[in-house]
Amino acid sequence: MTCRLFIDEVGNGDLRGSATDDNVRYLSLTGVLTTLDFHDRRITPAFNALKSGVFGRIDVVLHRREIVRREGAFRILCDQELRRRFDEGLCECVRTVPYLVTTVTIDKRAHLDRYAVWRYDPYHYCLCCLLVRYMHWLRRYDIRGDVAIEPHFKLADKKLKHSFRKLYKDGTPNIPAAMIQNRLLSGDIKFFPKLANVAAMQLCDMLAHPSFRSMKLTREGLPEPDDYGTSLVRILRDLRYARHPLTGTIDGYGRKWLP
Fold first, then answer.
1. Backbone angles phi, psi at 245, to 5 degrees
2. Fewer CB within 10 Å, N side or C side of the chain?
3. Tens-place pLDDT, residues 184-229
4. Left (φ > 0), alpha (ψ -120 to 50) or beta: where does 194 sit?
5. Cα atoms in the 13 Å half-sphere on the side-chain side of 133
């Protein structure tokens, strides 16, 4: 059995700008963990059925930002009946296909305030925390896996490759390199562009922002709005967030706030 962790992000790694700009204050990485067998036999067919039923074709690539703005292929979601079918169908996919979710969020401004000298690169820091939780899961079930993400810009992708290889080579403060090398199939992160139409990458894209927003509102002591994003998060809390194998605790496992 082979597993794969699909990663999507909200925000960016800009540490300096976060000191004064609320728009770049947070970085959040969400990982969707599943087996390659489940992905091919369960997740991909479920997403294809959803797309075929709403859009009449399966080559549509779900992208939250375009869906919210009703852009491109998603203009048809201005039709209330199609929107209802899409929303209900996506909720059904999120509820029933086999996967687990972990979201790691960093408040970069708080990170700057706390660490006057030591300032871990925010992206590397979040990736490290996500990888630690993935390694513990792989070890718990004695299986191996790899990691995949959507490419963005050449410089950012190069930096991410370097960060991942460093974690693979040197380990983390909590996980020795030998364990990472034993559990990961490769020291290279995989890149899947949107045009590859990978179902789990699209699932991750749809869940990353709602999961981040929920964590942020909880941190601020604010109520979650009664909207579609919250309905997705309720499913994650009930069924899909990773959790402690004995106590069922989500915080620290399926959700991690930094620093």
1. -65, -20
2. N
3. 999 999 999 999 999 999 999 999 999 999 999 999 999 999 999 9
4. alpha
5. 28
Which tokens go with 107?
Answer: 């408040």
Q: Where do runs of H (alpha helix) occur along the chain? A: 36-38, 44-55, 64-69, 80-96, 108-114, 122-141, 154-170, 177-183, 199-219, 228-235
Q: Are 150 and 193 in contact (CB under 8 A)?
A: yes
Phi and psi torsions of 257, nearest 5°: -105, 135
pLDDT band at residue 154 under the 50/70/90 scheme: confident
Go through the domains of the chain in sequence order and give each one's CATH number.
2-258 (3.30.420.10)
| CA neighbor of 12 nearest in space, from 30, 22, 25, 27 | 27
Place of tokens 């852009």: 71
CA distance 127 to 132: 9
Helix (H, G, I), strand (E, B), or coil: what is residue 193? coil
pLDDT average, residue stretch 222-240: 98
Q: Could you give the CA distance from residue 129 to residue 131 in angstroms, rounded to a whole number?
A: 5
Helix (H) or strand (E) holding 238: none
Question: Global pTM?
Answer: 0.96
Res. 22 pLDDT band, cuts 50 70 90: confident
Nearest to 102 by CA among 8, 201, 227: 8
